[in-house]
Amino acid sequence: MDKPQLDLILNNVSKHITLTPAEKDIFTGMLQTKQLKRKQHWVAYGDVCRHSAFVTSGCLRGYTVDQNGIEHVLSFAPVDWWMADMYSLLSHQPGQLNIEALEDTEMLLLSKANQEELYQTVPKFERFFRILAEKSLVAYQQRLIDNLSLPASERYARFCKRYPTLIHQLPQKQIASYIGVTPEFFSKMRKSL
After folding, report:
1. pLDDT (tens digit, 9 = 90+) per residue, 134-160?
2. Residue 131 pairs with which residues in a beta bridge?
3. What residues have CB less than 8 Å from 144, skipping those under 6 apart?
């Protein structure tokens, strides 16, 4: 683990809790590094997700595939974001998400077992992960309401606000899938905007 990776994750944590030097050492000692090549899966549908991932470079996407083979992107995790198949991580059941690197990606992994140990050793991490879970729940609820009630152009505007660094980084078909339209429709819509 290099210093820039550690600085990035510690800065992320410090947005919500303050750690002593000893607590930082305990936390960073529980992390492991993972590298993925572009298009490599970290978690595949049916796998049990046993870690939360913090992206230090690159970008992940979480998606499902419907019975017709069409991919539906649920979320992206650019640098400085966390990602996991939360259903699987919390229930210890086979997952429903595929999580794939959209480009060469480096991440720090925190196992569920280490996270539970962290709650005992450094209780303020319960607050940190509760805040992350609450923000995630709010974002998913808002996204569901947006998908049910907003036109595609508004859903795209909200995507741009949520993921400003990804607007020009991602292939258009990924953004189209996220906002729930075909790539062809998305292309026409962007031209008209």
Report:
1. 999 999 999 999 999 999 999 999 999
2. none
3. none
One-letter amino acid for residue 120 of the chain: Q
- What is this structure's pTM? 0.93
| Best CATH choice for the domain 3-122 from the list 3.40.50.300, 3.40.50.880, 2.60.120.10, 2.40.400.10 | 2.60.120.10
DSSP lists the bridge partners of residue 106 as: 35, 57
- Both tokens of 49, joined, read 């997700």
Distance CA 20, CA 43 (A): 33
| Alpha helices (H) in 63-111, listed in sequence order | 86-91
Beta bridge partners of 40: none
Distances (CA, A) of 116 to 19, 112, 185: 17, 6, 45
Name the β-bridge partners of 63.
73, 98
What's the pLDDT band for 129 if we cut at 50, 70, 90? very high
Considering only CA atoms, which of 147, 151, 177 is closest in space to residue 75? 177
In 3D, which of 70, 72, 73, 64 has the Cα closest to residue 46?
A: 64
Q: How many residues in total does the chain contain?
A: 193
Is residue 165 over pLDDT 90?
no
